[in-house]
Design a protein that fits this description.
Glutamine Phosphoribosylpyrophosphate, subunit 1, domain 1, binds 5-amino-5-deoxy-1-O-phosphono-D-mannitol, Rossmann fold, 3 domains, eight-stranded antiparallel sheet, alpha/beta
Length: 608
């Protein structure tokens, strides 16, 4: 939920740390801070607000150091404030940055308070600095002091620490929170996300749970959970500089919306053949496993769960498989039905969402047939801990509101559907039809993007409202839910989604001239019933906005109609997401909200 960056170099490190923090602001942006060795002291700066304010402080105070740690925060314990910002320190000697949650923080705080440690923040992180300070009285080095932390801390943590008395290195520890080490020439780095280090290196070591690392400009030593020196596999990850920049767009979200034709193409690349999906695209042996699947359990959060809800329809209609859907935050607590014929499917852009990871770890101990992840980040915990994996290959998604991650997840889930159907020989002709349609999908998405001028006309009418309803039926209900989520998350307009037939069971009471109703209405077997539902809205004076592809057949006599490109019905959920994303973006732009970093949210939710 927060972003950590650390560097041990032989050059001035301040700007480098600030640049890295900017790239991780998507992880949290309510306060930021930095600590670095400067001569025989540690310079320590913290600011409330975004990284820009910290940068301004740095320009005024000009601390110059070669080894430092920095942090951008998303508050969990303690409100956003300078005192609660990281790095936290103890006795002006130990400085730490932390991402995660320390679950036993209250008892540790009590213990340290009795020993005379004073707390200046309301966080669960400050006690880490005090624990280290205490450890340093008995251990010989910062490395040992950090290793000594592991038995005391319960919960998830990625920590970077400095000891004033060890000016030549820093120490890292990771447990269930992401942390990678970047390797440079006479300089080494660490960050919560390789993206933050993209301009510095393409060589990475991925730390495993329980690892502690001592990082100096010319050396990196990693010790495993048993404190044994280990060689972690070195990975080359090339992140193109433009992938992490806004280019000519005003916001990352806008750029990511318009990247979708290419992103979907990348998801399909190398995975489909002439008339069918290729074998083993989820990893060696996956086709064999898919043939044994009798049921699917999907677990995910937010937008990713909406993708799963669409896929549940596909699994049933195309592969003949029933699906159980669960919010990852609920799944473990409901005594889920588990058997050896069920495939667990997790979906996550980041692959670090704490609830989704916890669900996977819970399931990995049970008797599922296997686990399969649909994920966008190859180095993520979810990608590494699942039996099988399909990367969405969307490229970095930085805007907090998921856009290209969603459409590429849907594309990947269609590939999973086709693979499940193929594994048991179901619907060969239908599979061929869908493969053909998938090839045209990027082009269709471009056509949907070209509808922006029409969406610009309706955006002002929605921007001055306080509420909105999204309607869809069948496979479009999850798309309505996704449309509502997008609108509320970035424009702060209260929005809800309903299967249109549910309107008359309660929500119809909300309809009046102040309630925009946005309907997803492509031609399908429920279209006529949907029209009746829309008539119910019209009759009560609701303002209708309809996205469809058969205006005449819908026979709407009022409201605004936006004509969508035609495409294979089974892929329409992917296509109809596009105008809803543009609509949310344009409404938020008119309302002047912080689109890429909406209030109270963070991109990667690494706390449960
Ligand atoms: O990284 P994940 O896909 O696991 O994230 C799950 C949700 O936090 C995420 O989809 C969230 O709902 C988005 N901000 C929605 O736009």
């Amino acid at each position: 939920m927060c972003g950590i960056i650390a560097a041990a170099t032989d050059r001035s490190v301040g700007k480098l740390l600030i640049k890295g923090l900017y790239k991780m602001e998507y992880r949290g942006y309510d306060s930021a801070g930095i600590a670095m060795h400067v001569d025989d002291q540690v310079a320590h700066l913290r600011t409330l607000g975004k990284v820009k304010l910290l940068e301004e402080r740095m320009k005024l105070e000009k601390p110059k150091g070669k080894i430092g740690i920095a942090h951008t925060r998303w508050a969990t314990h303690g409100e956003p404030s300078e005192l609660n910002a990281h790095p936290h320190q103890s006795n002006d000697r130990v400085f730490i940055v932390h991402n995660g949650i320390i679950e036993n923080y209250l008892s540790l705080k009590e213990e340290l308070t009795k020993e005379g440690y004073a707390f200046s923040s309301k966080t669960d992180s400050e006690l880490i600095a005090h624990l280290l300070d205490r450890n340093l009285k008995t251990y010989n080095s910062l490395l040992e002091a950090v290793q000594g932390l592991k038995d005391r801390l319960d919960g998830a943590y990625a920590i970077a620490a400095l000891d004033q008395n060890e000016p030549d290195n820093l120490v890292l520890v990771r447990n269930r929170s992401p942390l990678v080490i970047g390797l440079g020439k006479n300089e080494n780095f660490a960050a919560s996300d390789p993206l933050a280090l993209a301009e510095l290196t393409n060589k990475f070591l991925i730390m495993e749970d329980g690892d502690v690392a001592k990082v100096a400009p010319d050396s990196v030593e990693v010790f495993d959970a048993k404190n044994q020196l280990v060689n972690r596999e070195q990975l080359t990850i090339d992140i193109k500089a433009e992938a992490a920049s806004k280019g000519d767009f005003k916001h990352y979200m806008e750029k990511e919306i318009f990247e979708q034709p290419q992103a979907v193409l990348n998801t399909l690349d190398g995975r489909i053949g002439g008339e069918d999906v290729l074998e083993n695209i989820f990893g060696e042996g996956s086709s064999e496993l898919l043939a044994k699947v009798k049921r699917v359990q999907v677990v995910a959060c937010g937008t990713s769960l909406h993708a799963g809800r669409v896929a549940a329809n596909w699994f049933s209609a195309i592969a003949g498989l029933p699906t159980q859907m669960d919010y990852a935050s609920e799944y473990r607590y409901k005594n889920p039905y588990i058997d050896e014929d069920t495939l667990l499917v997790t979906i996550s852009q980041s692959g670090e969402t704490a609830d989704t990871l916890a669900a996977l770890r819970y399931a990995n101990d049970k008797d599922y047939l296997g686990s399969l992840a649909i994920c966008n980040v190859p180095t993520s915990s979810l990608a590494r801990e699942s039996d099988f994996l399909l990367l969405t290959n969307a490229g970095p998604e930085i805007g907090v509101a998921s856009t290209k991650a969603f459409t590429t997840q849907l594309t990947a889930l269609m590939l999973l559907t086709l693979s499940l159907a193929k594994a048991t020989g179901k619907n060969p002709r239908l599979r061929g039809r869908i493969i053909k349609a998938l090839r045209f999908l990027p082009e269709k998405i471009s056509e949907a993007l070209a509808l922006k001028p029409e969406i610009l006309e309706i955006a002002p009418e929605i921007a001055n409202k306080n509420n909105a309803l999204f309607l869809g039926r069948g496979i479009f209900y999850p798309i309505a839910k996704e449309g509502a989520l997008k609108l509320k998350e970035i424009s702060y307009i209260h929005a809800e989604a309903y299967p249109a037939g549910e309107l008359k069971h309660g929500p119809l009471a909300l309809i009046d001239g102040e309630m925009p109703v946005i309907a997803i209405a492509p031609e399908h077997e429920l279209a006529e019933k949907l029209v009746s539902n829309l008539e119910e809205v019209k009759a009560r004076g609701g303002a209708l906005y309809v996205f469809g592809n058969a205006e005449e057949r819908l026979g709407l006599t009022s409201g605004k109609y936006i004509n969508m490109p035609d495409c294979d019905f089974l892929l329409t959920p992917i296509l109809y997401s596009i105008p809803l994303q543009i609509l949310s973006y344009e409404v938020a732009l008119l309302r002047g909200t912080d689109i890429d970093q909406p209030r109270n949210l963070a991109k990667s939710v690494t706390v449960e």
